[in-house]
Amino acid sequence: MQKYIGANPESGKKFYQDFHDKGKIVMLNLLKFREKADYKNLEQIQPDEIISGVEAYKLYIKNTLPELKKAGSRIIYYGKSNDFLIGPESEKWDAILIVEHESVVKFMEFAQNEDYLKNAGHRTAGLEDSRLLPSTEIKNYT
User: Which Gene3D superfamilies match (predicted)?
Assistant: First the structure.
């Protein structure tokens, strides 16, 4: 199974096109952590001692929260996970994170913010694999 940590330019462009002027965006993050965080090429933010992927991701969240708030975003939910109730038995995720952003423009500003980018390496170091699924609310579902 292919692993995914970051977006590529094509998916970023499609995300912007699909969600521009759609209002609030909710991002579903599926997260699989490394047993030990990998700070290869990230020595400038590497902790003094070896830490787990979960601990690296906690550093990422701690350092990201102020930037999220500045962007008008918020964490709706962060929790442990494992097996799907409905889905492939071969896929297992350690945690899910649900984040609400005011708009695609606000999200893009947040994701390109220099202060955010200084600490985004903790995410990379901590994750073995991830998925990020953007969504907008369906208001007329009946």
Answer: 3.30.70.100
